[in-house]
Structures are given as structure tokens and as C-alpha cells.
């Protein structure tokens, strides 16, 4: 695949910029998620998986492959078709001390269960004054895939990240997937874990440290994927790959872009974002979701509030088109941010001060 | 199986299969993928084979059923079991001719019916049950008055439903976890929640276990296994099923018990929870307080089935209809249901018929949508307290003197509890920010600092009775 090959080229460039342990192993995001769930289930008997097709079908996207065989039908539970039902049941099980990992076939379907996620999970610890905590993880693919239309392509990062009481994570690489999912399962608060269908098959280099079963990434810390000094590009999930490609293109034109992978949407790592903008003086934010009230709006607000005097150019927001996702491949491509859009935005941010 | 098919239908079938297989690729992860696996021979369960699924719906003529030689003795081997055929166009009626009968032990006057069967109750338990019913009624009356006087912002009474509250609690064990709606404070009362603790929550003071976070009557107690009231209707039903699953996995001698009203049975969560509980074989009791009204919506506008009890069968759940104003009947039904749920790992549905004597809440005036006569009739003729009192007294376990002693003691305790609760300080400012997460995150710690700074520089803009 062309995209994958170019991604690998980008990847190896950024490997030299970071200090990886000397592992040359690679792992797909799918295997990373599968191994993370497997290890956490093995370590803690209270962890169990539930969702549609997670057991016998091995998972709609094969993320839970092999788990039914290993842990049995009581810990890998195939549910009837009722998101409201199994989400409510998962929350109830969490109230009673188990640690459910609830899979939504896509987060679009989570809308049928969103009352339980917000009112039964997110707010419970607060409303009960600490008597009821909900150590649950809601995970599944989020955002656009390829040719699945409006009802299967929406990004829910902004919706969930606006709710106090939830933690919202969005991994990009295999290391992100492993470390963040393990952290989410171990966390005593409810966590919304936004994966991306198109990243499942992507392979990433992975260090020995990340392969260890005790590996865990901190929640609330963003990662600087590529150091730079001229413009800061902040994004999450699949767009991190696009931003890295854009950075390559910008480097050819003499613009050094710093790419930040948010990893955590709530809590948002405002410190890292602002520190970077204070260094580069320019901000470009990118997301696949709808533009109004998006994640990028929050990042821009944070930077304008905290680092206004450091900015040399207006903040830039790249988001998906303000339309329900069209199905036709050509229209879908136009409705989503592409590498060229990121490059143009960065250039605008760089020329404006002149 | 293929040899049973004639060649023309075989080619049609294969065309259907080809079309279907084209849709099965995993990258089109949409609801097209959901196909129920047939409950056929074990080999078909592990490898989803569309050919087997389609073949199983073809008519299969058995060589013999019993001793019939009749060519009409055909049976379809369908997922879930054999289904026999009928040549008649028969629609199952929307309702039975007779309504499901209602289990009761005491008649309207509190006399035990001669042929009634019930689980015996000792003097100690009966006296505690009756005393708690009186306490609940008096607590409700006094808090209601306090709201009317402007001392409480809100209250909801359980008048008319005291038997459901107390008798069900009495039949359960302290380890059974309760998922209430909001009209079951009696369960907490039975388990030992004091009048002072109720008052503290209603006044939202610093002794409130809820740290002043919720409206009055949204009680909760970890210690007493009573999950904090959540105002959203019927969401506690699937939560209870999840908790029951957890109890089953841990092998505990306990069940989950959840309460809801006739109105709650319309929520999607009701259907998901019951269906799921049956499939999961979860030890959970679903207790429906069918009190005739959901705010101003009568049951005739809520559903067209014979109440809620008939819905249990639709999900494969054992169900019973009980006279909710008969304390002994409630006690027996819940007692038996609990045994079955735990021993057999199954959910049970109990529909308790009763009447909401009070208004929905202090924000409601029910005389606007129902007659005062109707309310009065239920309050007098079917009053759960007077019926049970008659039976308790008939055993020589209660008297007028005991009644007046109890009532004057409760009244004194209640007034004192309110006096103390009103005077107790409100929760500290830091409790605005605690418990959002397990550990307060940086942004909340920063916000608290900002709020405190603001309060310090502009004290006149902030309430003076919130301790810092």
C-alpha cells in the first residue's frame, strides 16, 4: 500500500529523532490491543470483556481474537444487540467490583448507550461522593473509516471529552495502543478509549520496554513525535500519521514542524502544547471530526488564553467538513483533512508574520 | 443436507448465499454482520456456516412422531427447539380473557384469608416491619411539611407504598445489593439508616454521605448495599443485572434487587435488562411498583398489556403479581423469589400492585389530574399500614399504647433530626472539586485555587454559609 510505505519512511525518519530502545520489532495496532487486553485479563481476574461478536466471532475487527478460547465465555461475553443494555450492565458490574472492558462495534453505536456512559458512569463517583467508583473501559473504533457513510464515520472525541468524570484516550501507534489501554484498564475512573479502524492493520516499531507486561503509559501526557522549531502541529489518532508526513514535506521547504500526538484528549496536556507553542510561536491543530465545538477549538482556546503574547500568527484549525460523511470515495476524500491541507495551514502560519 | 433440495431451489439458495457472502467482509463492519448462529448440532456453533443456517429452515419430515402415520405431523427444527405446524391462521390474542391473578394473604381488612399460603414471620420481624412502616410514613409526612415550609427544596413521598418498601427489605439479606428508583427509602430505613442520616442528605449538609451533591431523597449507602439514587428512569435495571452477574461470578450467596415503577417499564433499559438477565442467567429481582401513575400519566396511557407481569414471559422470566399493599404477601413473594434467583441463577419479575397516594413529588399537585375521591379511597380502604396492623394485633404483638408511644417517639426524633440537620454547616468548598475523578487532576486543582482567590478578594459576591 502506498500510504503504508510512505508512513514507514516517515516512521524511520522520526525514529532517529527519538531515542528508542534498540528493538527492531514491529507490531500492528491490532496485536498491540489484543496483547494488552490479554495481559490485563491474565493479571487481574476481575477484568472481563463484553460486546457484540467479541467471543465466537473473535471480535468484529479481531481485536479480541483468541480471548474466548483462553478465558472462557464468562470473561469474554457475547452480548445481545443492545448497546444500552450491555453498557448499563457493564456499569452495574463495575459498581459491584468487576472491571469490564466494553466494546462498541463503532463509537457511532455508543450513542444508543450514551446515557449510561455519562449518567451512570461518568457522574457516579461525584454524585455518590466517592462511594461508587466505576473502573470501566469503553473501547472501539472511532471516526472515519473507508467508505462506510455518515452513520459509521462520526468522531466522538469532542463529545466525550467535554464531560467531567470521564477520561478520554486516543492512541496512534502500537506503543500508544498497548500503553494507553493497559493504563485505561488499570484506572479506577471510567475511560473512553477511541481507536481507529484504519490503524488496526498498521505496523509500528515497538520497543522491548513496550512489550513488557507491566508497561503502561501515563494518562494525560502528550507525546512529541517529532521535534521542530518553526510551527507546532497538534493532533491525535490517525491524523498524527498525516501530520508526520506533512512535517516531512515542510522540512523539504525549510520549515521545521514540531508534531505533538495528544494521546489523551481528557485530561488535555495543555502544558506540553503551550510549551511547544511558546517555542515555535505558531499553532496548527488537526482533527478528523466536525469543526464546530471540536477538540481543536479547545486547543486553540487554551493556547490563546495562556500563550497569546507568544503567538506570531493566528491559530489554525484543520477539521473534517461540516457535513455528514458522504459515501462516495471522492467526496469522502474531500470531506477529510489530507496531508496537503496540513502543509498549507503550516505555511500560512509561517508566512503571516512577514 | 444439499441432496434434499430440488435443483431449482438449490440454485436459488446458492445465489442467496453468494450475495450474502459478499457482504461478510469484516471491513464493512456494520450491522449486516449480525447473524444469529443456529442453535443446531454443536459443530455448527463454532463455524458460522451459512449453508447450514439456510438449510435448517427447510421443512424436515421426521420419520415418526409418536405413533402418527399422518403426513401432517410435520415439525420444523428451528433455532430454540422444535416448532410444530398448524393449518389454522391463528393469531395469539393481545391479552388473555382473564387478567393474571394477584397473590395476597390478608384481605382488605387485614384478616388472613383462610386458604392463603405464606412464609411465616416471627413476632420480632413483624413488629419491626410494622414499626418501620409507621416510621416511613411519619418521616415522609414531616419532610413533606418541611418542604412546604420552605426548609427543604424538594421531597418525594412513598405514601401508600410502605408495605412494598419495608416487607421487601425484610425478606432480603443485608448482602443483597439494592438498585432503587427513588421511592424506596424504606429499604434503607429497614437496614438501619437513621432519621438523622436521611435529614442530612435532604439538607445537603457536611454530614451528608453525598457531600451535598444531589437533590433531597437521592440517598445512597455503600455500607448498607444501597446504590445511590440516580434520577434517570430505569437506568438502574441493566446496572442491577451487571451487579448480579458480578455476584454470580464471585459465587456469593446474594442477589441484586432493583425497583422501578409502571412508567419505568416503558424505558428501553427495561427491555434490555430483562432480556439480558434471562440470557446471562443473572440472580436479579426486578420489583415493579405498579402504583397506577407516572406523574400524571395513568397506566392506560403507559402500556396496553395486562400490567407488567405478563412482560416477564416474553423474555423467558418467571413472574408473579402480588398485592403490594399486603405486607405478608410482599414478604413471601420476595422471600421465595430470592431463593429461586440465587439457587437457580435466574431473574425473577415481581409486579406489586399498589397506589401512589401522595403526589409524584413536591413539584406536583395530583388533584389536577385525578379525583380526590380516588386518592382517599385507596388511602382508607386499602391502606397497607392498617391492614398489617390488624394482623399484628390479632397475634397479640401490638396495641394502641405501643402505637402512640411509637408515633410520639418518631415525631420527636424527626423534629430533632431536622433541627440538627438545618444547623449543621454545608460541605466545604473543596468538595466542589473532589470525587470527579479518583485523584483530582491538575486542571481542577488549579480551578480550586482560582475560586478561593476570587472568594477572598470579593467576599460580598459569595454565599457566607459555605465554609472554605
The gist of it:
Chain A is α/β, with parallel strands linked by helices and 354 residues long.
Shape of chain B: globular
What sort of overall outline of chain A do the alpha carbons produce when their principal axes are compared?
A: globular
End-to-end distance of chain B, in Å? 78 Å
What percentage of the residues of chain B does DSSP assign to strands (E)? 5-15%
Task: Please outline the helices and strands.
The complex is a heterodimer of chains A (354) and B (468).
Chain A: H1 2-17, E1 25-28, H2 29-43, E2 47-51, H3 67-71, E3 76-78, H4 83-95, E4 99-103, H5 114-122, H6 124-127, E5 137-141, H7 157-161, E6 167-169, H8 174-186, E7 191-195, E8 203-206, H9 208-211, E9 223-226, E10 231-235, H10 238-252, E11 257-261, E12 264-266, H11 270-280, E13 283-286, H12 295-307, E14 316-318, H13 329-335, H14 339-351
Parallel strand pairs in A: 2-3, 2-4, 4-5, 5-7, 6-7, 10-11, 10-13, 13-14
Antiparallel strand pairs in A: 1-8, 6-12, 9-11
Chain B: H1 7-22, H2 42-46, H3 50-56, E1 75-78, E2 81-84, H4 123-148, H5 162-171, E3 177-179, H6 185-191, H7 195-203, H8 236-249, E4 256-261, H9 268-280, E5 284-290, E6 293-294, E7 297-298, H10 309-314, E8 318-323, H11 327-344, E9 348-353, H12 372-381, H13 384-394, H14 400-423, H15 442-457
Helix pairs in contact in B: 4-5, 4-6, 4-13, 4-14, 5-6, 5-11, 7-14, 8-9
EC number (chain A): 1.2.4.1
InterPro entries (chain A): PDHB_mito-type, THDP-binding, Transketo_C/PFOR_II, Transketolase-like_Pyr-bd, Transketolase_C
Domain Transketolase-like pyrimidine-binding (chain A): 27-202
Amino acid at each position: 500500500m502506498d500510504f503504508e510505505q510512505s508512513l514507514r519512511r516517515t516512521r524511520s525518519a522520526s525514529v532517529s529523532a527519538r531515542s528508542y530502545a534498540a528493538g527492531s520489532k514491529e507490531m500492528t495496532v491490532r496485536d498491540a490491543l489484543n496483547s494488552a487486553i490479554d495481559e490485563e485479563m491474565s493479571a487481574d481476574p476481575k477484568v472481563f470483556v463484553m460486546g457484540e461478536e467479541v467471543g465466537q466471532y473473535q471480535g468484529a475487527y479481531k481485536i479480541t481474537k483468541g480471548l474466548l478460547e483462553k478465558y472462557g465465555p464468562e470473561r469474554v461475553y457475547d452480548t445481545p444487540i443492545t448497546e444500552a443494555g450491555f453498557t448499563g450492565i457493564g456499569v452495574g458490574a463495575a459498581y459491584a467490583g468487576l472491571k469490564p472492558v466494553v466494546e462498541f462495534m463503532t463509537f457511532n453505536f455508543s450513542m444508543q448507550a450514551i446515557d449510561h456512559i455519562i449518567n451512570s458512569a461518568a457522574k457516579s463517583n461525584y454524585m455518590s461522593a466517592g462511594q461508587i467508583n466505576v473502573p470501566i473501559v469503553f473501547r472501539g473504533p472511532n471516526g472515519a473509516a473507508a467508505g462506510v457513510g455518515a452513520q459509521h464515520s462520526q468522531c466522538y472525541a469532542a463529545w466525550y471529552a467535554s464531560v467531567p468524570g470521564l477520561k478520554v484516550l486516543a492512541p496512534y501507534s502500537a506503543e500508544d495502543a498497548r500503553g494507553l489501554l493497559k493504563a485505561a484498564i488499570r484506572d479506577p475512573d471510567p475511560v473512553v478509549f477511541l481507536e481507529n479502524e484504519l490503524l488496526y492493520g498498521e505496523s509500528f516499531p515497538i520497543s522491548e520496554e513496550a512489550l513488557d507486561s507491566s508497561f503502561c503509559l501515563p494518562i494525560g501526557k502528550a507525546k512529541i513525535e517529532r521535534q521542530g522549531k518553526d510551527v507546532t502541529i497538534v493532533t491525535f489518532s490517525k491524523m498524527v500519521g498525516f501530520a508526520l508526513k506533512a512535517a516531512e514535506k515542510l522540512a523539504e521547504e525549510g520549515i521545521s514542524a514540531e508534531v505533538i500526538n495528544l494521546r489523551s484528549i481528557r485530561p488535555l496536556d495543555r502544558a506540553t502544547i503551550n510549551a511547544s507553542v511558546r517555542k515555535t510561536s505558531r499553532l496548527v491543530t488537526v482533527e478528523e471530526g466536525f469543526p464546530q465545538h471540536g477538540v481543536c477549538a479547545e486547543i486553540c482556546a487554551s493556547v490563546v488564553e495562556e500563550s497569546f503574547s507568544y503567538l506570531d500568527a493566528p491559530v489554525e484549525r484543520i477539521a473534517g467538513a461540516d457535513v455528514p460523511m458522504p459515501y462516495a470515495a471522492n467526496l469522502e476524500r474531500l470531506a477529510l483533512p489530507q496531508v496537503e491541507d496540513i502543509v498549507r495551514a503550516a505555511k500560512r502560519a509561517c508566512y503571516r508574520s512577514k | 443436507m444439499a441432496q434434499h433440495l430440488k435443483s431449482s431451489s438449490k440454485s436459488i439458495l446458492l445465489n442467496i448465499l453468494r450475495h450474502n457472502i459478499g457482504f461478510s467482509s469484516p471491513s464493512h463492519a456494520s450491522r449486516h454482520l449480525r447473524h444469529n448462529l443456529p442453535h443446531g448440532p454443536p459443530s455448527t456453533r463454532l463455524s458460522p456456516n451459512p449453508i447450514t443456517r439456510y438449510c435448517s429452515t427447510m421443512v424436515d419430515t421426521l420419520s415418526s412422531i409418536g405413533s402418527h402415520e399422518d403426513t401432517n405431523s410435520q415439525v420444523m427444527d428451528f433455532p430454540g427447539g422444535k416448532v410444530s405446524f398448524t393449518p389454522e391462521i391463528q393469531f395469539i390474542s393481545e391479552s388473555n380473557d382473564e387478567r393474571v391473578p394477584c397473590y395476597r394473604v390478608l384481605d382488605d381488612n387485614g384478616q388472613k384469608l383462610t386458604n392463603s399460603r405464606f412464609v411465616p414471620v416471627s413476632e420480632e420481624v413483624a413488629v419491626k416491619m410494622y414499626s418501620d412502616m409507621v416510621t416511613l410514613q411519619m418521616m415522609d409526612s414531616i419532610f413533606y411539611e418541611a418542604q412546604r415550609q420552605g426548609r427543604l427544596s424538594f421531597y418525594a413521598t412513598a405514601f401508600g407504598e410502605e408495605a412494598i418498601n419495608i416487607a421487601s427489605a425484610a425478606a432480603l439479606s443485608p448482602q443483597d445489593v439494592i438498585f432503587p428508583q427513588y421511592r424506596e427509602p424504606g429499604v434503607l430505613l429497614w437496614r438501619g439508616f437513621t432519621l438523622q442520616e436521611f435529614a442530612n442528605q435532604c439538607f445537603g449538609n457536611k454530614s451528608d454521605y453525598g457531600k451535598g451533591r444531589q437533590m433531597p431523597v437521592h440517598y445512597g449507602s455503600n455500607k448498607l448495599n444501597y446504590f445511590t439514587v440516580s434520577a434517570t428512569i430505569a437506568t438502574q435495571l441493566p446496572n442491577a443485572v451487571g451487579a448480579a452477574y458480578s455476584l454470580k461470578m464471585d459465587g456469593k450467596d446474594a442477589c441484586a434487587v432493583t425497583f422501578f415503577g409502571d412508567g419505568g417499564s416503558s424505558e428501553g433499559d427495561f427491555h434490555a435488562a430483562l432480556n439480558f438477565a434471562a440470557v446471562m442467567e443473572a440472580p436479579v429481582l426486578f420489583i415493579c411498583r405498579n402504583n397506577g401513575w407516572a406523574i400524571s400519566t395513568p397506566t392506560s396511557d403507559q402500556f396496553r398489556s395486562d400490567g407488567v407481569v405478563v412482560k416477564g414471559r416474553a423474555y423467558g422470566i418467571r413472574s408473579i403479581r402480588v398485592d403490594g399493599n399486603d405486607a405478608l404477601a410482599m414478604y413471601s413473594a420476595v422471600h421465595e423469589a430470592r431463593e429461586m434467583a440465587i439457587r437457580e441463577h435466574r431473574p425473577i419479575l415481581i409486579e406489586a400492585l399498589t397506589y401512589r397516594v401522595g403526589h409524584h413529588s413536591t413539584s406536583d399537585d395530583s388533584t389536577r389530574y385525578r379525583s380526590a375521591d380516588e386518592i382517599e379511597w385507596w388511602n382508607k380502604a386499602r391502606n397497607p399500614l392498617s391492614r398489617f396492623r390488624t394482623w399484628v394485633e390479632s397475634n397479640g404483638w401490638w396495641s394502641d399504647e405501643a402505637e402512640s408511644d411509637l408515633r410520639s417517639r418518631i415525631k420527636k426524633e424527626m423534629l430533632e433530626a431536622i433541627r440538627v440537620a438545618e444547623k449543621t454547616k454545608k460541605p466545604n468548598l473543596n468538595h466542589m472539586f473532589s470525587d470527579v475523578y479518583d485523584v483530582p487532576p491538575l486542571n481542577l486543582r488549579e480551578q480550586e485555587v482560582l475560586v478561593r482567590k476570587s472568594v477572598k478578594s470579593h467576599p460580598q459576591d459569595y454565599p457566607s454559609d459555605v465554609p472554605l
